[in-house]
Amino acid sequence: MITEPTPRCPMHTADQKTSFGADHQPGVELQRDVWYLRTYAAVKQVLRDSEHVRQGATTENVLVTRLRPAVIFQDGEEHREQRTAIARFFTPKTVHDKHHAFIDLLTERLIVRLQRAGQADLSALSMELSVEVAARVVGLTDSLKPGMDRRIDELLSGSDLNGEQRVGTLDRLRSAVSQSKGLLKMSNFYRVDVRPAIQARRNKPQEDVISHLLSKGYNDLEILVECLTYATAGMVTTREFIGVAAWHLLEQEELRRQYLAGDRPERHRILHEILRLEPVASTLWRKAIEDVTIESGSQTHHIPAGARMILDIRTANADASVIGDKPLILCPHRALPSGVQGQALSFGDGAHRCPGAFLAIHESDVFLHRLLSLPLRIVSTPELTFNTLLMSYEIRDFIVEVA
To answer: Under CATH, to which class is 28-402 assigned?
Structure first.
């Protein structure tokens, strides 16, 4: 009997950059009362199971107690209604008709600044881009002073806002100081950026998220929490993705040429593969509200109601049984099975799939295509760290230079 050889990707290029030494294999296992799901099929099943599974991230902290939960923490009918209402702000048609020209102009402004200076920190440029684009969609366009990108960056870098109990007296003191600093930064963000936007939209509603929230009776603090959600899930994630995509494209000349020569679908294919390999949000939490049965290979796992689950997106995205040959290598032309998207599970799946997925790829593509048309080189290897609060990698001090 002659078997056909397994199809191979015609262009294997660079290794994964953001593994942080992780050596997990796809599978399902129970560790200390927490279920770890590390296969594509298991993670996708749980993400799509809105009947037996709920969001697992805690909202019991000093900021959101007794408040209406942000959309990312909602479930059931409440979440479906909210997602349906905001979906119109993120459709491809809305992005093209309302935001594409703005993204083009903003990109050109940043590129001109880079050309005049001769070099720049790409992590700063990408943060400015992602903040201004997302702010336009959310409605954060009436700030009292410039620099919202810096304020958000400071707010989300190292602040302990979870109110976790520490063990020792010194730990509790450090936690209290950290929380106080974080709350001061949040208060500044609200005063300078959020409150002026709310006031402007109370006087004149617009087609953006804040106007929608006001129409549903959200108060100022609830809107602040939503804005922080969009800052974390939209602005920061896009910033990091642009950084890691540029890193790959600048180091791999053949990949860069293919990207620059490609049409939009081809460019998006390349970006989706980079995102599959380097998912910004590496971990998701879920909680079983009813018993869940998971099939993993030849094994069946029964997860009881009340159990917590950690969904390992990075390992699931590298499940060779689905992704194919050499899953930890960048390969834009993989022959993926029907139903498996190029970015795999990097945007999530099911009811909580990222609503801004198309916007994130579109703005990244516009900026990267213009950036990489320059004779650009990396001055030194950027700093790569992992933010345990956001469960995502961070790329900093990414200095690029116009040759």
So the answer is: mainly alpha
